[in-house]
Amino acid sequence: MADSHTSKPAAGRARARGRARGPQLAAKPRRPEEITQQQTQQPAPRPVASSSSAPTECRGRAAQRGAASTAALAQQMSAMSVGAGSGGGEDGNAKASAGRGANRGRAEKYEDPVVIPSAGDSKRGSHGTVVKLAANYFSVDKLPQTSHYQYHVEFNPTIESIRMRKGMLYGRKDLFPRGYQFDGMALWASTKLQQVMTEVIVKRKTDDENIRIQIKFIKEVSPRDPVMLQILSIQQRKNFTYLDFKEIDRQYYDIAQTTRLDQQRMEFIPGFTTAIRQHETNVLMNVELKFKFMRQETVLQLFKEQHKKNPRDFRANSEKLLLGAIVMTTYNNKTYRIDEIKWDMTVKDKFDQKRGNQITYIDYMKQHYNLSVEDPGQPLLMSKPKVKDLKRGDVTIRYLVPEFCVMTGLDDEKRADFNAMRELANHTRVPPDGRVAKLTHFMKRINTDPRVIEDMKNWCFKFSDNLVSINGRNLGCENIIMTADPSSNGFGYNIKEADWSREIRGARLLEPVGLQHWVLIHTGRDQAIANDFVSTFERVCRPMGMLFPRPTIGICQDDRTGTFSQVLKNTVSPSTQLVVVIVPNNKKDRYDAIKKFCVVDMGIPSQVIVTRSLSKKQTIMSVATKIAIQVNCKLGGQVWRVKNPFDNCMVVGIDSYHDSAQRNRSVCATVCSMNQFLTKYYSQVSFQTAKQEMSDAFVAQVTAALKNYKNLNKKLPSPIFFYRDGVGDGQLPQVREWEINQINRAIEALGDPTYQPKLSFIVVNKRINTRFFQSGTRGWENPLSGTVIDTVVTRPERYDFFLVSQSVRQGTVGPTQYNVIYDRSNLIPDRMQRFTYKLTHLYYNWQGTIRVPAPCQYAHKLAFLVGQSLHSTPNPRLADTLFYL
């Protein structure tokens, strides 16, 4: 848990584990995995979020972008995003509609308001060098047009189970000899029934009751109808099954290609996720590689391991590891979230089966799966229905046998294991050439399978064999400036590496900060390492312009958390300006205690360093240099800058992170720039519960930041750019309708009616499945840093663009998608894109460009520190420093 100082910020970020769950349901056990409770009334439908309720300003200066046909296309397609797996961001896959408007408890579609740049009708830029790219999208080509028909299907008496409805209709597939798609209510086929209302009788197998199925003709569907995306989505899921892919947690994986990593006691399964939607001019299918990680040991083995380590705290430690975790059953590859360990239940307990007889879990597993239970005393794992399950009437509580469950994903211990992560990366960080090969091979399998060909022919569509081609633009590199002299042009860097660590080595910082009094804490056995660090630290700080005296030393007799806490209290005084602590390992509770004392109680910047990072003589100079830069930032200094095209602007980064100490509570961090160079920030946090919109504290934060800016600069800022990270497509309505309103309230709270700043609100999305490839001398390569894409794969109803801002040494680079949902800046797209790219150069924990604008990364670091370690508001004395680096 030491403060990072040697690694690039992660491309992704951890997500809150606590998802919204259903209410506690008392349940009498009936059968494993499916213990159903009947609700007395239907769950209330989710509130509808419609574009009409969004602030009108979201639409920019005009109600349409370009020609009427484009706007009509955007309106038709904006809500359509359907896929065969689940993904995040713009490639996330909405579940196929059940057809007849809104099904029970189903939210209505949210449509993006059409947003255009406030400076004109086009969202495309022109600056930069044109580069030829390919993207991991395949066009969905229309075959010669034929007719398709939509029907509505009803069952009498009502059948609640969608699976049973599908099975009954399948018994009369003779009605549709050319095939059909059925989602439980709506049916689509290329066969037209003779009657408007067709009625058939099917016998229900469970009780031999006759079920009347009524199939009503609704309309003829043209190949351009948006509902065809829905049909194609259902068909693509069927295509996966034709290729023997297995659905696991709404993704599809090739079980036959499972790779075991026995040394790491892990295995992973390769797969693909797909999403079909309308893009700028064509319907495209996004295809991306996915990997499912699983541990080889079962949950029962995990129980035994925890009991062996600490019998007294066995239950508490097991719950800490399991609650909120995702497990997969070994007998049917289904995944479940663990909500409770039922210590008072065992596999010897009996439950009622559907036909009324009782059976133990042991016998049930033997009869249904031919699995023998090894430990009859093991407890059961309980998984409650999620909110979305309850909304569609599924109140099933599932009980799982630990012996037949394996943990999925990577835990903190595995993530901290360098050798394990390197081995995983060797298999899963696929370079561009290999990625393109895997994607095209997958599409070849799809397009040559006779069953796929026949089904797709019935729907008059086929998938292209080739990746889509795109013209991108490279913006070039920004000059890095390390002086306040306005005439300085600074220096460039190698754009292929997007790194300037060599160029700044030994250079004076933009604003170095010195110290009068600092404290160094370490254990007695680390005395020699501490002495080497101090001398090296002084040596690297001097040319940077940072002058440090010798520190006050506090020595710990052992490495216990309590010992470090006591030495800190005895050594640190109100005059201390910096605390540096050298720790023997990454023990989390000790790190948390140090940070709470320094950040919350004392309001003093602190730096925690693991002994291991200082133990190598050949790297200590490099490590000390990075620590010096970090310390300078924590003390309020500046390292470098880029040219800012605006005289009086503010940039705000917003991000959130779950609070690991309180389930269903999250931390929202806002980081606001305070100077012309965009290098000094005012940082604040607030707490909110799950399902709660941004709290009123956000208004106070923005108001406080504006007042602080005015105190420092003698005027209020304009324009103001808000970069909002941590938002999925499903949250865009709340962001658009709530957070922008909160910002306007904050401006009104200043009490100056003449202050009307130019605002832009940009949603930053890096959890996407889009990838770009550039043709090079050795085949497909990663696009260079500064490559922007604003056509072909962007969305017709959005003002959006993709930016590849960082460089990676392994695997395929991940672009970031920027969705401008509110724009009053009067900037043409070129300036918005270039300004965003500039901001990726200003993150001081990495001497290079990063994946998101620096204020977003700072907000993430702050939210992470508070959510993981502090669990309370930092001391306001630190608000104007980057104390969380």
From TrEMBL:
<dbReference type="InterPro" id="IPR036085">
    <property type="entry name" value="PAZ_dom_sf"/>
</dbReference>
<protein>
    <submittedName>
        <fullName>Uncharacterized protein</fullName>
    </submittedName>
</protein>
<feature type="region of interest" description="Disordered">
    <location>
        <begin position="1"/>
        <end position="126"/>
    </location>
</feature>
<keyword id="KW-0963">Cytoplasm</keyword>
<dbReference type="InterPro" id="IPR003165">
    <property type="entry name" value="Piwi"/>
</dbReference>
<dbReference type="GO" id="GO:0140965">
    <property type="term" value="P:secondary piRNA processing"/>
</dbReference>
<feature type="compositionally biased region" description="Low complexity">
    <location>
        <begin position="36"/>
        <end position="83"/>
    </location>
</feature>
<keyword id="KW-0694">RNA-binding</keyword>
<dbReference type="InterPro" id="IPR036397">
    <property type="entry name" value="RNaseH_sf"/>
</dbReference>
<dbReference type="GO" id="GO:0005737">
    <property type="term" value="C:cytoplasm"/>
</dbReference>
<keyword id="KW-0221">Differentiation</keyword>
<comment type="similarity">
    <text>Belongs to the argonaute family. Piwi subfamily.</text>
</comment>
<feature type="domain" description="Piwi">
    <location>
        <begin position="578"/>
        <end position="871"/>
    </location>
</feature>
<dbReference type="GO" id="GO:0030154">
    <property type="term" value="P:cell differentiation"/>
</dbReference>
<dbReference type="GO" id="GO:0003723">
    <property type="term" value="F:RNA binding"/>
</dbReference>
<feature type="domain" description="PAZ">
    <location>
        <begin position="298"/>
        <end position="409"/>
    </location>
</feature>
<dbReference type="Pfam" id="PF02171">
    <property type="entry name" value="Piwi"/>
</dbReference>
<dbReference type="InterPro" id="IPR003100">
    <property type="entry name" value="PAZ_dom"/>
</dbReference>
<dbReference type="Pfam" id="PF02170">
    <property type="entry name" value="PAZ"/>
</dbReference>
<dbReference type="Pfam" id="PF23278">
    <property type="entry name" value="Piwi_N"/>
</dbReference>
<dbReference type="InterPro" id="IPR012337">
    <property type="entry name" value="RNaseH-like_sf"/>
</dbReference>
<keyword id="KW-0943">RNA-mediated gene silencing</keyword>
<keyword id="KW-0217">Developmental protein</keyword>
